Amino acid sequence: MGLSFNQMPKTKFNIFSIITWLNVLVGLLLFLWQRQAGNIPYSVQLGFFLILVGATGIPHGALDHIIAKNNREDVSAFNIQQFLRKYLLAIIAYSICWVYFPSISLLIFLLISAWHFGETDLVATSGNSFWDSFGRMICGIFILTIILLTHKEETLSVVQRITKGQEQTLLIWSFFAEHKWTTIISTGTLLSIFLTTSILRKDQSFQLISSLNLIIILFLCSQLPLLVSFALYFGGWHAIRSFEITFSFLKNQQEESASDPLTMWKNALPMTFLAAFGFIFMAYIWTGLGIKTDPIPALFIFLSIITLPHLDVMDKLIRSQKHT
């Protein structure tokens, strides 16, 4: 039997919590640098982004085949070739969608990211009802509004390049950008209502240290440049939380590749390196299509196409454990 997330110990100062607090410290140092110097050099921003995404962001999804194998009643029936075929098919199909339908692909990316972020952050929610699903989606949307709407100009520039200047998409973005605080406060209020109701009903446990950690990270995200902001949340919080969920599950399954957190991370490296080569290939195709050479759109598109199949694996894991 798998470990029920309702039975998981509340987040304490374990290795995962320590890492997220170290990321808070790094974020505070970057914030002070920005306040002192007026800005953070772009090379530092890009370097910070690549380090966090490379060290935790991509690796946290590089254990999907191990999770999928253990998250079934008959482990021996797992077929790695079949799993990889489906995984790659989803990546290829979404990549093609990005080439021909960039605006729709962007919308899909935002929706699946919102769900994935919310599901991971509210993993302690006990049910799979519509109300629980609503809360997870609102949580993810709130996080995305903090990251994107507090960087209106930077986000607009990325959206323009990713969608090739699609007018309708830019109009929709401009609407939300003009109503930035209305959007942030509205989603924040809905999230507060959900959390308060869930805690009173004992459907959601309240974790003070973990919540404070996330609040500080989101505050720093609203103050730092977009690249740093996204990396701080995605690599400095979300990926670590996903690692913690994965480790708890695999450890309970007595999976050798997760005997300890460091061993688990090392076992994620082969797929991480494979993903890095995939990004290089994708960037080559992106440039070859006659699109202006620019690493930022390629980076975000790359993250989106590997997020789609990863979300499916994590969603099945979290749902199966809630039914345990």
Number of domains as seen in the coordinates: 1
CA gyration radius, whole angstroms: 19 Å
Q: Report strand %.
A: under 5%
What is the terminal-to-terminal distance? 7 Å
- Name the assembly state: single chain
Mean pLDDT: 86
Helix-strand pattern, N to C? Answer: HHHHHHHHHHHHH
Gross geometry: globular
Name the structural class: mainly alpha
Number of strands: 0
Uncertain stretches: 1-11
Q: Helix segment count? A: 13
Question: What is the percent of helical residues?
Answer: over 70%
- Tell me about the largest β-sheet: none
Give the helix/strand layout.
Layout: H1 15-37, H2 42-57, H3 64-70, H4 80-100, H5 102-121, H6 130-149, H7 152-162, H8 167-178, H9 180-200, H10 208-223, H11 226-252, H12 261-288, H13 295-322
